[in-house]
Each structure stands twice: as structure tokens, then as C-alpha cells.
Amino acid sequence: MSQTIKLEYGMLQPLLSGKMQKNPLLSKIINKVLGYTNIGNYARSRVFRKQITLLPLEKMQSVLDLGCGYGEYSFMMAKGMKHAHLMALDIDQDALRNVRYAQSKMQLPNLTIHEGYLNTLKDDTFDLIYSVDVFEHIHEEQMPFKDALAKLKTGGYLMVKMPHVTQSSVFPKKWFHKHEEWLQHEHPGQVYTLKQLRDRFEKEGFKVVYTAQTDGILSRFAWETAYLMKKGGPVAQLLSLPFCKLMIQLDMWFSSNNHANGNAITVIGQKSK
Predict the structure, then answer these.
(1) Of 18, 23, 56, 135, which residue is least crowded by CB atoms under 10 Å?
(2) Which residues fall within 8 angstroms of residue 219, CB to CB, at 6 or more apart?
């Protein structure tokens, strides 16, 4: 486990949130008191930090954020791993525009930004490639496992975190019909159970070193509560934050790595040869 790496999530929200930029002083106070305000991202980041620090990060020199989006994980990892070089990779020009803006403000010397596909990068380059909630947006036959294996150094790791093929709910699903419609359109690759994702890793040539099924019923309860409170306006949303974060923390405290009905799955594979 990485003992010397400290990872802090949420540093980009004050920079990139349109709502926060409209009232920067109030937003700064809210951020100081309540912390990160997006419950879904907060939950994902807590699980990610717990899992990624199981790897020997302090020994790694080159890391790739595959499908970096707006760059929250890129900046977190680059800031926490000052000894390593981190590349933020995506094909979304709008997302990368935000990443470049954030980098212009934060000026992290060990972070570079690259627009393009994984197969355009040099082979045998990275000690770690991680991808958080990206593979579900890719059709199964196009998922870049082979490219990831080629870009890793021998002994390097690929970490994929994504939603489970089936999602458990607390409240009636009809309350979230718009979100469900969005998922059907945006998640063509949300097709795996934990075992199936592990099998895919092994089929593609990886040695699986870690698996987990997380985001149990308390975490789901927190997300659904936050989703419903958001409809009540910003005050209702903010008032629900401490409760939702507590539910997420309890979900992590009272569970092992394997929720029988967990809504998220993670597999870490190693390139052994």
C-alpha cells in the first residue's frame, strides 16, 4: 500500500463550476464548510482513492488518466504524485478545454494534456493506466484493453472502475426515469458483472491482482437522496450534503470490497510479460 501518497479530490470544482463562479465568495465559504458538493463524484472519489493507494504509487514514474473528462482525477494524482509524470488523455474537446483552463491556473509541472486515442501513444510507456467511469461509454468490442496492455511497461497496471451491469435502487425507479433514459443512451458498454470484467481482463492478457464490487445500498441511498433534493433547489441540496456524505462513509466502513448488490465494479490487472 502507498503510505507516502496523499490524494485530495475536488480541487477543480471552484474553478470550473459555473454556479460557483457566479458567486465566488459564497461558494468559497460553502466549499470550505461542506467540501465537494457533487455526491456521485464524491462517492466515486472515495472508493477510487482507497483502491488506487493499494498500488505502489511511490515507485511509479509515468501514469495515464484514460478518459480524463474534466480532469479531477488527473489533478488529484499529479498533485499527490509529484515524483511522477501524469498524462490526461481524452477525445472530448470541450472537456479538455476545461482541463487546460484549470492547468493554466494550477500550473502543475508534472501534468500534460493530450487529445486523442490511446493507440496513438508510444508502447511500453506507463507504469499505471487508470480509467474511472469511462468504459461504460464505449461499446464492448471497442474497449481498449489491447491498446492499454501495449502502452504499459512490463509490470505495469491497468485499473478500470465502472458501473455494474445491473443497478440496485432504494426508491422507486420511476422517480429517476430521466436519468435511466440518459443511461440507456450514454452507457452502451455497461454490460459486465464483476466476474465478467475479470474474465475480460484475463482474456486480454492481464494478470488480475485486485477485484471489488462497491457502492452498496447506503451509497445508493445517498446518491438517490441527493438527486431528489437537487430538484428542491440549491438550499435543499446543500442541507442534504452532510447526511449523504455520512451514508457514503458508513457504506465504506461497514462493507468489505464485495457488496453482493454493489453498483460499481473495479478490476486491476497487471502486465506480467
Answers:
(1) 18
(2) 43, 247, 248, 251, 252, 263
